Each structure stands twice: as C-alpha cells, then as structure tokens.
C-alpha cells in the first residue's frame, strides 16, 4: 500500500482550464483603476456592497435544479444531506453582480434605505467553454439604484459614469455615452400597426382589401415579435435604409446572393422604423424633435421621448455636455432586457489591433433601467437602474493609451557580498524603506554575484547596492544605477562600458541620499 | 405546464448558510486596513499575486478524488465529461492562500524571480458546519518568501509584520511578536533520549538495569511522538512545571480528580523539556543562553539557537526592538507543521468581551518556515517562510481601539420640494461633488417631506438641502445641519427647538461655502 502511494504521479501544477492568475502590476493596476472609480461612486452617495461568492441556486434563479446537476452556465454543487432532513441545497458561484443585488434588496428591504444606491466590484464565474481571451472568472464593476422610478436616477448614473471614466484616466472627448429609451422603440412598434386605412398597399405596392389588412394585422400582431424588428434594426449600420426596408417586408438578397427572408411587415408599417433609425440630429434638440415625429400619436412613445428630454436637461444641469453624453437612437443592443432608458459608453479613440490595423476601441460600459429585480422574491415590482463597467476592457484601453504601467517600479536590491554581514545589509534596506523607498535584500544563495545582478534585473530594480569587506572597512557603499547601466550596456563601446559611470561610491551615511538622487 | 410554473413558490431571499454580506463601512474599513498592509508589503519588495478562486482538487492536494465527492472541508464539484475523453476534472474553491502559492511557484518556476516574495489578499472558502462567528467564506492576508533558506527571510517577515501592524494603526507597545524555532524543540527532543548512563532511575526514582533502559529507549523512540510531547508543553501555562513533569512521565490527577495518563518518559528525560519551558529570560541574550544550555549537545538544537540569535541580531539592525519582537520559547501552537523559525503576533491590550469582562485581545497573526511547498509538484524541496494576518480579528481589534469607523460619513442629501425642478437639485449635488463633498439628490417619491428627512437620517447625512418654490424665487436655499439638529432635538426644550438654529438660509451661490462651513 505504501508503495502504491509512492508511485502516485505528481499532481500537475496548472491553473484550471479557463482560469488565470494575476501577477504584480496586473493586480495593482486593476486595483488602482477600481479605486478611482469607487471614489466617484462614493462621492455620488453610493454605498459599497460585497456579497458572498456563493448563492443558493434558488436565489440565482436562472438555473433551477430540475436536472441532475444545474450547471448550465454556472458552477454549482449540492450540499451534503441535512441530517434527518431532505437533500442538501444546491449552491453556485454568482454569475454576475445583479442577481445577488436582487437577493440582498429583497432580504434586507426593511433595513436598507430606499432608494438604495450601491456599487459592487468583484469576480464573477461562468461555466462556459473557455477560449482565447475568454475566461471563466472575471471582474465586474456595477453601480445600481434600486427603488427609484424617476429618470433622475438614470441621468445621475450617466453623469456618474462620465465622471468615473474621466477619473479613471479617459480624457473628455475620448469617450461618448449614448442614451436611448426602450419606450421610444415600443412607441415605434405601436405606430407600426395603425388603424387600417383605405390607402394600404401590399409589399408589391398593390392596394389590398380592408378585410385582408385586418387579417394581416392579426397575423403580424401575433407572429412578429419586437425581437424580430430589433434584430433588423441592429443591422442598420450594415445594410442601410433600403436594406432595413427589405428585411422588414419581403426579404433581401445579401452580397453573396443568398436570400434572407423578410419579417413580413407591410410597406406602410416600415416608415416609423426608418424615421426612428434616421432620427439622430445635429444635437439633442433636433434628435428629440425627430423622435417625437417618429412616434406620432403613441402615448408610450411620447413618454419615452419626454423621459429622454428630461435626462438631457438634467445632464446639462449637472455639467455633462453633449460631447460627453448624447441622445442616440442607434443604441439597441440588449434592449430587450430593459424597460426604459438605456445607455452605452464607447471609447472613441482608435487603437491598433493585433494585426496592426486601426480600429475604434468600442464599448466599455453599458446599462439601463430594468424591472422585476426584487419581484421574483417578494411579488412587488421594484424599479431599478444601473451600469456595469467592463473592467478588463477599460483597463486594456487605459494601457493602450499609455495611462497605466510604469507605476510599479521594482525595489532597490541590496546585494549580499558577505554572508556574515546580513544584518548590516538589512539595516540598509530598512533605512531606504524608512525614507519611503521600496527596497529588499537579496535572499538567494549569495555565492554567485552574477546571479544577484540577474535577479535585480528580473525584479526590474532601478538601483543595486553593493558593499564588500573592503567597502565596509572604508565605510562606503557602491550604488549602481541599473537603468543608466542598461542604457550604457546597449549603446556604449566596451571602453566606455568599462569606465562604469553608472556606479558610484558614496560614504555609508549618504546611501539614502544617493539612491534618492538616482531615482529622481 | 404554464400553470405549474406560475404556482411555483417564490425563491427565498437568503444568504446561504454560513455566508454573509458586507455593507458600506464593513467593506471600506477592511479595504482601508488591507491597503495599509499592502503598502508595507510592497515597500519590502513583495509583489501582489491574485490566483483564481478555483483550483483543481488535484493541485489543492489535501483532498483527493478517491471518493464519490471529495468535499471534506472544501467546496468541490466535477466538471462535465470531456467529449470523447474521460470524466471531467474535480474543481474546488481554494481553502487557503498557501496551496495556490505552491501551485503557482511550481507552475511558473522558470519565470518567477527566485527567491519569490509575494503577498495575497482575498477570500477563501471552507466547507465546514457554520456556527456563530464562524463563516464558510472569509478573508486571508498572507506574505511569503519562496526559495530562500536564509533566516534573513524569517527576520524580514517579522520586521515587516511589525511595520504592517503599526501602519494599520496598532501602536508600538500594543503588540508583541514572539519568535521560537522548531529546531530548538527538535534539539530538546534529541537530548531527551541521551546515551544510557549508570545513574538512570525509573519514574519512582529506583535505579534501573542498563538493558531495561535500552529497551525503554527503543520503546519510547517508537511510541512517543513529538506531538505527544508538544501537547503537554502546550499545557505549561495551565499546569506549571510539576504538572508538566507528571504528564510527561507517569500521569497526573487533574482538579476534578480524574487521572490523566502520562506520556511515559523517564524522569531523566524530562529535565530538558523543563529547562526549555523555563528558558525565557529578561531579554533575548538571557533567553538564548538558557536555550543553549537546554539543548546541550544536540547539533540540531544548537543550530536552532544560532538561528534565533541571528534573527535577534537582524531585527535589532532593522530597528525592531525587543518591545516589538522577542525570542519566546512558549510559542508552540501549530509548531508541528513548521520546520524552522515560527512566530506569532499578539495584541497585548485588554478589551471588554461580550459580557463586559476584561480580556487580552490575543493573537492576530502567525507564521513560520515550512518545507515541501513545491515538492509535491516538482519533487524538489523549496524552502519557504511566511505570515498570515487574521483579517477579521485585526479589524475587530482596530474597531475595539476606536481606530476605525467615523470615516464613512453619509452624503449631503438634497431634498426635492418641487419635482419639476429636479435638474436644479441635481445641479446643487453636482456643485457639492465638484467641491469634493459627498452628495446625492433624494430619488424616492418626494410627496412626503417627512420621508425625505427620515431617508437622510438613515443615510447618516450630515446636512440636508431644502429649496421650495418660494426659496427658488428668492434665490436662496435652506441648509439644515442634521448633526446639530439631532443634538438639539435630544437636549433642547420645545421653544429652543422651534427656533431651529440648526437651519440656515443662504443665497444659492453660497450653498457650497455654507455646507463646507458646517462640515468643518
């Protein structure tokens, strides 16, 4: 038996598939960015909330334990049997920060202020097939207001998002928050189905019998979901006005010659959609006027336009200009999930992709108003609105703009020439730290001095301190400027290199002053 | 079917058993404390490492998948079957921060600097029965040096721990780091089994035959583990010198009269243990001399004492006095796990427990040197040393000393008297924020003004801003000092209260200045 144990293969030292480790600057730079964002959230009256990573599958909701293992999309496991009771609960890792907020808002509804403004930052887990750049654990950074039906809450979130992006380092002009309203689109869908008129024509332009129109209306009302229309609207950028018209009615041949079936609307129903799609004007006032025309007599549409108008006015009052946040009807992505205002923040500068081509950086945050958050638990509708910042994408953007990095300089490395004088080397490091300078003593085997300098290089050390027996007796230390040294090694001739101008001898009591001088 | 779905009971809004949520100051105060500690770790050349929460059960090691579900102590689950392959991996949530460090040190051994100094802060998970104050997710905060056999690494960790505690807010004199060495104890165990002499006596003081002594030696060497001895040593505080002597030899009657069996050592074997236990002197020099005497001729014991002597010298060189860190042979807890120096930080001030009784706060951090960290993966021994700070305990200590809290003041609340002028209220909040003041607009239903003040109270707001139509027309705002107001309400007469000195009317453009005056 003991033999068998010994024969067991060694465990593999591997991060599980789809997971990753963050080292050094990866950790500090993300932290630095999130700290900046949290500062803005806090100043806007938002309170931090940190829920546990684990929730009951029941509370998470989307994933019910009606199969053997409810792990479609989440990491889930069943608790051990309750002694004397039934089977244990199914538990799971949270897949976002909104589901736990819903649980908290219901569980603590009598204790929390209402409205409840909260922000949350932390990892979430998705049980998905990992791929390049797709991880099964990643960070989210959310801010939500629960319990306010006022669009003032939406406007505040947009203004706060602008402030957060700027405080994180994105310059004004390098981002744009686009705002739309699901209600406007509902209004458009409403006016797409007007009372039948005498002038109705079919898809081929021929006049149709009133009875047929009525029948068609029934059919379209039943069979055409707003999702079908949304899908076409989403293609506007690609296929243009005429393409959208074809796709909404009888269909369209794409570039490859393949025929894409139409949604089946009548020509007269398409006009409001096109009016909506082309409603973006030179400024908010013009866009709002165009939208008002597009929604026509729809009450819900008019309400949506009113809300956008209020949001625009509030943003202006809060000092957020149209160069930062603007009404834009083209924002439709994920709209189906939302019930009112929606918004998306894009970074407008260009970066080079992995193939060296210029491309727009694109979306880094999005959000909007949603219902049914707490309703699942309590049966009462609780209006809510919120935003989620894509942590990895925003960090990548800041790095692409050179706004991150460099902050994490390596420590000054005190080398060890004489093992017996370790305490003295540690005293040097302690003195440097007391002066606020990051410093460490080399703690590997000191025999090979070359290894010590290689170590200093790997640590990205700006300075190395050297004191052998001779220097100790003379009361001096050698201070080696490694950054200058590397430059000289790369550029200088052998003779210049030998002159070693990057290394200075100073009296022991001037160690800190000399290091400070080199670090600038 | 649809009916069945509707009839489903609502999910319970509950944190899973043994888990908890952290709100507001709970989050910010812990963060503030960890930030202070991280600053010190960073200055000592330690690099942050953030591993994923999920590890393979194989890499975690302690929990092998030889049963149906290897969830003894950990939260574990099996991945879905690999298509065309065998069963999926068992994954688990990390139960500490050391096991992931071992995996990382092995996985990235060619890329990481050696020695590798790293710190890690984050939640860990234990699948244990929850109890009062015992949670299944909690924070750990570790710093370790991997790959250095030098006691300079241990000394550095102790000095860094002192600096971290002080930077977190614990004053010098309020903590003490006690340092011991497992090798000294090994030396003691060695000298407990000396070459048999002619003078050996048995437990009753009678002379024993040499052959019997030899036989006994074999028996004791086999049957008496160092753990047995350690367990007795751990009772020294309680039972004293004579009690330890009895427990190590023939046994002892405790206070209740019950007989506790002895470990079975001979009288002559007990002396080194007692010498060890009473070796703490007035200062390190004396303690070290006593220890040297106690370990006698044991080579490993002498090595242990030498190491402690070096550590003491290095701490002195780094400016860490004996009032901060001291050699103390009484630190034995968990010693079995360690292979060299061990240390424990205690807070020495008294606090009142839940029953109002004074008690010492006790241990907040501990650590030491250990082997076999990377060996499991690579077969190569890698020496390591590290410390773990008890995050919850240290935070509780800082709160008990009044060193936390108060930092999280509520926002200034701008009330809403006139729903149509929401944009103006938002402009006020924006102005306050631009001046660095935390501020928010009331976003609930503004109909009932009393509710708005109740909300401000719940938000811990220091100031409320009020502007009705009348004030707006006159270009003024009311600024209500809620802290002063609460004091007046508690202390003043009805007449004084009616005079409302806590509320001031100021011109609109002096809003920020007035709020600033009140906040001081």
From TrEMBL, chains A, B:
Keywords: Aminoacyl-tRNA synthetase, ATP-binding, Cytoplasm, Ligase, Nucleotide-binding, Protein biosynthesis. Its EC number is 6.1.1.21. One of its GO terms (biological process) is histidyl-tRNA aminoacylation. It is an enzyme of class 6 (ligase). It catalyses: tRNA(His) + L-histidine + ATP = L-histidyl-tRNA(His) + AMP + diphosphate + H(+). It is found in: Cytoplasm. Its main location: cytoplasm. One of its GO terms (cellular component) is cytoplasm. SUPFAM superfamilies: Class II aaRS ABD-related, Class II aaRS and biotin synthetases. CDD domains: HisRS-like_core (cd00773), HisRS_anticodon (cd00859). L-histidine binds at residues 96-98, 126, 140, 144, 333, 337-338. Residues 39-411 form the Aminoacyl-transfer RNA synthetases class-II family profile domain. InterPro entries: aa-tRNA-synth_II, aa-tRNA-synth_II/BPL/LPL, Anticodon-bd, Anticodon-bd_dom_sf, His-tRNA-ligase, HisRS-like_core, HisRS/HisZ, HisRS_anticodon. Homodimer. Belongs to the class-II aminoacyl-tRNA synthetase family. This is Histidine--tRNA ligase. The gene is hisS.
């Amino acid at each position: 038996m003991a033999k068998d144990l010994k024969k067991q293969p060694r465990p593999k030292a591997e991060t599980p598939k789809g997971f990753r480790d963050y080292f050094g600057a990866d950790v500090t730079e993300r932290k630095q960015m999130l700290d900046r964002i949290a500062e803005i959230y806090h100043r806007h009256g938002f309170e931090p909330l940190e829920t546990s990573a684990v929730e009951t599958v029941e509370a998470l909701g989307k994933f019910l334990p009606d199969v053997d293992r409810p792990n479609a999309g989440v990491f889930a496991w069943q608790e051990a049997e309750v002694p004397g009771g039934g089977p244990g609960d199914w538990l799971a890792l949270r897949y976002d920060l909104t589901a736990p907020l819903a649980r908290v808002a219901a569980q603590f509804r009598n204790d929390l202020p209402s409205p409840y403004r909260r922000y949350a930052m932390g990892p979430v887990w998705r049980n998905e097939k990992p791929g390049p750049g797709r991880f099964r654990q990643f960070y989210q950074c959310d801010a939500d207001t629960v319990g306010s039906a006022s669009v003032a809450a939406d406007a505040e979130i947009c203004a706060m998002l602008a402030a957060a992006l700027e405080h994180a380092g994105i310059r004004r002009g390098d981002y744009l928050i686009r705002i739309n309203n699901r209600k406007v689109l509902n209004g458009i869908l409403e006016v797409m189905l007007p009372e039948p008129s005498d002038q109705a024509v079919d898809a081929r332009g021929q006049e149709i019998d009133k009875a047929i129109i009525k029948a068609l209306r029934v059919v379209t009302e039943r069979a055409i979901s707003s999702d079908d229309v949304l899908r076409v609207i989403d293609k506007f950028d690609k296929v243009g006005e005429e393409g959208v018209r074809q796709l909404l009615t009888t269909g369209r041949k794409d570039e490859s010659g393949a025929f894409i079936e139409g949604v089946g609307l009548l020509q007269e129903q398409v006009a409001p959609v096109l009016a909506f799609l082309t409603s973006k004007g030179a400024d908010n006032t013009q866009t709002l006027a165009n939208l008002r025309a597009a929604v026509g007599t729809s009450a819900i549409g008019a309400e949506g336009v009113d809300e956008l108008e209020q949001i625009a006015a509030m943003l202006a009052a809060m000092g957020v200009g149209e160069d930062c946040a603007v009404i834009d009807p083209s924002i439709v992505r994920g709209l189906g999930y939302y019930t009112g205002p929606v918004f998306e923040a894009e970074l407008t500068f260009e970066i080079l992709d992995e193939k060296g081509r210029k491309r727009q950086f694109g979306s880094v945050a999005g959000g909007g108003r949603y219902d049914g958050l707490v309703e699942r638990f309590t049966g009462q509708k609780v209006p809510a609105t919120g935003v989620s910042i894509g942590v990895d994408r925003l960090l990548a953007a800041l790095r692409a703009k050179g706004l991150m990095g460099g902050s994490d300089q390596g420590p000054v490395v005190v080398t060890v020439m004489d093992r017996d004088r370790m305490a003295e080397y540690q005293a040097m490091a302690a003195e440097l730290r007391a002066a606020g300078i990051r410093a460490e003593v080399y703690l590997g085997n000191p025999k090979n001095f070359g290894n010590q300098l290689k170590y200093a290089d790997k640590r990205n050390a700006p300075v190395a301190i050297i004191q052998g027996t001779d220097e100790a007796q003379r009361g001096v230390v050698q201070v080696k400027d490694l950054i200058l040294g590397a430059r000289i090694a790369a550029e200088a001739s052998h003779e210049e290199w030998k002159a070693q101008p990057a290394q200075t001898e100073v009296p022991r009591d001037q160690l800190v002053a000399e290091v400070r001088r080199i670090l600038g």
